[in-house]
Amino acid sequence: MPKSKRNKTVTLSKTKKKGRDHKESIVNSIREAVEKYGSAYVFSFENMRNLKFKEFREQLKSSSRFFLGSNKVMQVSLGRSVADEIRPGLHKVSKLLRGDSGLCLTNLTNEEVQRLFNEYEEYDFARTGSIATEKVELKEGPLEQFTHEMEPFLRKQGMPVRLNKGVVELVSDFVVCEEGKPLSPESARILRLLGIKMATFRLHLICRWSPEDFEVYKEGLEDSDVESS
User: Fold this and answer.
1) How far apart are CA 153 and CA 186, in angstroms?
2) In which region does residue 37 sit, left (phi positive, over 0), alpha (psi from -120 to 50) or beta (all else)?
3) 206 shares a domain with 110
4) 173: domain range?
5) Does 219 or 12 have the greater pLDDT score?
6) Does residue 130 lie within any of the structural domains?
């Protein structure tokens, strides 16, 4: 009688996953950083670009350390209540780690941190689903910025084009995107070809903690968000 596959033994010894050990490593790193650096900030981000953020982080690596990832793990690291916070007041920071947010531990002055975050701004090409910041319309006629080899690709993006004596030509006006509406994959590709950047990668400070005080920057937060539990 053949062996049942239901009872087959499967070894997991070669399987590598980011499990408990990985989370504990992050928790320990954050707790060590809290002891090493003088203040902690929660920040939010929009239109995240990993390469740009890495460059920003590199600029501050001698004086600061950044953490991005699971908000829950970062909350556990700091403590989510007065009873389990690792230093007085850090549970208030923990409560504001939600959504697209990160943690910055630093020895920079409050003024310097605010200046660096407020001034940081990087423009990039918008991705599919991003909201168009302006209407982009191409008028009927030659598109001299494109070579004749681009004509088949442009046609696949929905553009009414043809070749006229080796020049790519629009046979009628074409709206690439409408202000306030999400970008389709085709619109995002065309905007990139046109060199039009509609996404801005920004960082926004939400709060600051130090052993002496706690301050909330971002407007619109309810008082209950930072009250002690």
Assistant:
1) 10
2) beta
3) yes
4) 136-196
5) 219
6) no
